[in-house]
Amino acid sequence: MARNVNFDLNHPLVEAGLESPADEDVVHNSFSELIAEQSQNGLSDAFELQELQNELDEEGRDNLAYLTGRGLNDREWEDDERQTDPLVGERWSSDTLKVLSSMPSRTIGRSRGAIISQYYNRTMQLRRRRQSRPSIRDFSHSARPSIRGYGMEADCIDAEGAGASKRERLVNNLQNLSVSDRIRMLRAMPLSLAEKSELRTSTLQKERRTRSGSQIPCCSQLKYYIIIAVRQCWYSWLSFLHSLQLWQVALKRVSGRFGTGVLSYFLFLKTLLFFNLFLFLVTGAFLVLPQAVHPPVLSADRQSFSGLELLTGAGYFSDTVMYYGYYCNYTLHRSCRDDDGGQNISVSTGTTSSCLSSHHSYNMPLAYFFIIGAAFFFTCIILVYSMSKSFGQSFRIDKSHSILAMKVFCSWDFKVIKKTSVKLMSEKICTQLKELLAEVNQKYVKNTVCQQLWRLMVHGLAWAICIASTSACVYGIYHFSDFMHQQQQQALTNKHPMLKEASLLALPALVSLINLLLPGLFNLAAWMEDYESPSVGTYVAIGRNLMLKVSVLCVLCYHWLGRVAADPKSINLTCWENFVGQELYRFLLMDFIFILLDTLFGEFLWRFFSEKVLKRRRKPVFDIARNVLELIYGQTLAWLGVLFTPLLPAVQILKLLLLFYIKKSSVMMNCQAPRKPYRVSQMTTIFITLLCFPSFLGASVCVTYTMWSITPSTSCGPFRGLKTMFQAGKRWVEQLERDNPNLSVLARAHAYLVENPLFLFVGAGIFLIVIYFHSQVVDGQRKIISLLQEQIENEGEDKKFLITRLQHIHEQKRTSKRRLKSQDSNY
Amino acid sequence: MGTTASQLGKDSLAEYQELTFLTKQEILLAHKRFTELLHKDHKGDPHARVPMDRVLTLPELKSNPFRKRICHVFSTSEQKDGSLTFEDFLDLLSAFSDSATLEIKSHYAFRIFDFDDDGTLDSGDLEKLVNCLTGDTDDTRLTTEEMRQLISNILEESDIDKDGTVNLSEFQHVISRSPDFVSSFKIVL
């Protein structure tokens, strides 16, 4: 391409042609004349084509330029080019090249005249629109001027006068715009300041009558300064906020060294942190704080702090705001301490607002019920929103996803000025480009039938191993939890209490151990399979790890809700909710400890070993999929436990914060950038989908089940004495109705909306219908896009056709002239 | 347009403010920085040019791989030597400012990436662009094979009318789908 059309700088003709816009218009003329000639079906000799004639003399030079151009720009991809673009494959005369290079589509990016005419068109459009619909302030962003408006007008006007008159008309148009529009227009013109100021002065000159200059009255000047100052403050505040963004530098360093893949892990961690922060703020402000201000009367035999509690979460912690059991089941009053002799249900005043004047009251069971519900509801909304956003970003409706082009055109961050960061950015872009290319390349690999059969067998074997090991582990956990359950049933009073507490750690340790070891086995299987594309390998690894984690969590949920909650008396539990909360705390903690161990042994010691003993230069590669799934697993535990342990999000926040720094330093120290670079295009989307679908949905199903159909403990917690937790809301509504008959509508609404499953079905139905309509709209848009693309391609074909015709005519002219010339010389 | 900020003149300041995306403070700061670059003899001259080498000593441009292209694109010099007047400098800052529109940013980005100034991005331009992005060191540079693939892929993705080059409209089409372009195409003094 380069050698043909653009000719770099070593072509004197084309360069001269590019300098002045006036010259371009000449070329436009020749083009249009040629087209006209064609349409008249005349290769009439009467038509004089000056340029073509001149060309005769320059033929030799043309050849020379062609040769030098070839020498300089001849590259390996010449053949490839020829395939993609038949326009380029042939050798054009310099005249055709001139026409090519002055086509409207190519001049907008370069010449002043084209820009002026483009903006003339735009001001026209704006004026028209103003007249018809004055409310619309914005105008089209499409930079493509209408061909008709541009080309034809330019062609029919005399070449010299074209630029000037165009400018004149632009000035006229600008005058007719309102002041703010004009300023906006002028500002947005990609012309140099001198030209813009010329345009401005000529616009203003014609409009002398109103604006006399820059004399602004004093008070408006003051206002102006204040506005500017406020805006400056706002901007600096914004930039300050920007600089406050969590872990900006660390993330940049990670992405500079490891690319987007590893970065997505840390970004995901950050997202989780915000989810937990939200959950913590909600439960902390509305549950923990009120209860902590009004502590209930505690039994005397309170256990002292021994240190093991940090691991087990039991003992001393049992009677704190940390667990469900601590929360009271009555309305908190400001004078709570005076009259809380009994723990009778005193939902006397109903809503908090109605009794604000007399004394503040806080209906704890109701708050507990609604806060947990609201927290889950809002988390769900945020999750679905971020999921849809991320889907929108990674899956565009038009199929031509120009990722590579986008990466190349948009990835440079011009703000970066530090030399090291520039280098990092170069590294990062290079890694990403290689990832993208690797992904594009792996599409074109073909295998024979035999190979495919072999591969299929290997895959089958690998899957069999994975499924078998997973089910074995799940079976083991099922029986081990049963065993531990029975152990506790056989009253272990004779044992040392510390030992008893420590034995609680056995199940979490086993589960975490399985979570640590089985992914290693999966990796082994994946190594055996040897996936060609790294992203497919990642997806398979995610699938297997997910299978393991989901089944483990299912068994555990059955253990807690089916065994423990169903029959708490059998293991001498007074408050099974506390027990489940403690279990979840232990699981969360154990998970963290095992991740630490994994980091230490799997990354640090392994690197040490391979460097010192095996003398290999390679460092271990950071396993994104496994690490992300560990995060999701931990988050599921946190969501499951929020009902029983309102402070569990705080524990999770701490864990995530520590994990970030540990993982970051481990990655920077022990790992190397992925050897086989791959792009994690939809990774974030997949992670967030996984977080939403099995993780959050599973947790909320468990929590809802607990609230709706499990009988809470009779002697602890805000729901004691109730049949289900759900009844707290029901009772409150009934109370409300009794107190205030006017609000019976609310009670009926509650009965209809919450207790009737029909409403749920209708809601789900509407939701599905909305989704269906949206998908239909998207489908239609996709069709339109493909049609438009087809049309553009056709127009490109037309362009090619015209250019080849032009060249053809030119050749014919040339040969006929030559023949004439030779005849002349013969005479 | 004088030597000091106070001498810039209220009229011209207002005019610059109207014609660029810069605020008053930014223009004054730009003027201060520009006069620092100017040679002593030219301090009073409003149309004095600062040669490209001197402009590139600005820390904001120093390590930018596109620094020379930026100077060339914004220079109005007849000799095409990349030297900047104060107005050119303001143009530059305006295009890279916070409030500049996506359109103007993409227009100038296109011209910066159009290394041979021919109005389209052809494979030669794309190669130079990619080399600028990946840096000069050997370990970051793409191999010839990778480069070939990359360029043919870019053309395949963004060259809608299939003429073998990416023109401004096609370029802006690509840019419009990248949400972070506006935030990354910025230079702050």
Automatic annotation (TrEMBL), chain A:
Transmembrane segment boundaries: 262-288, 366-387, 461-481, 502-526, 546-566, 587-609, 683-708, 758-775
Keyword set, alphabetical order: Membrane, Transmembrane, Transmembrane helix
Signal sequence segment: none
Cited Pfam families: TMC
TMC domain ranges (all copies): 575-681
The keyword Transport appears for this protein: no
An annotated Gene Ontology molecular function: mechanosensitive monoatomic ion channel activity
One Gene Ontology cellular component: plasma membrane
Lipid bilayer topology: Multi-pass membrane protein
Major location category of this protein: membrane
InterPro entries tied to this protein: TMC (IPR038900), TMC_dom (IPR012496)
Localization in the cell: Membrane
Keyword Nucleotide-binding: no
Family: Belongs to the TMC family.
Name of this protein: Transmembrane channel-like protein
TrEMBL record, chain B:
InterPro entries noted in UniProt: CIBP (IPR051433), EF-hand-dom_pair (IPR011992), EF_Hand_1_Ca_BS (IPR018247), EF_hand_dom (IPR002048)
Keywords, alphabetical: Calcium, Magnesium, Metal-binding, Repeat
Domain of life: Eukaryota
Start and end residues of each EF-hand domain: 101-136, 146-181
Gene3D superfamilies per record: EF-hand
GO molecular function, one term: magnesium ion binding
Keyword field contains Iron: no
Pfam families, per the entry: EF-hand_7 (PF13499)
Alphabetical list of PANTHER family matching this protein: CALCIUM AND INTEGRIN BINDING FAMILY MEMBER 1, CALCIUM AND INTEGRIN BINDING FAMILY MEMBER 2
The protein's name in its UniProt record: Calcium and integrin binding 1
Source organism of the structure: Mastacembelus armatus (zig-zag eel)
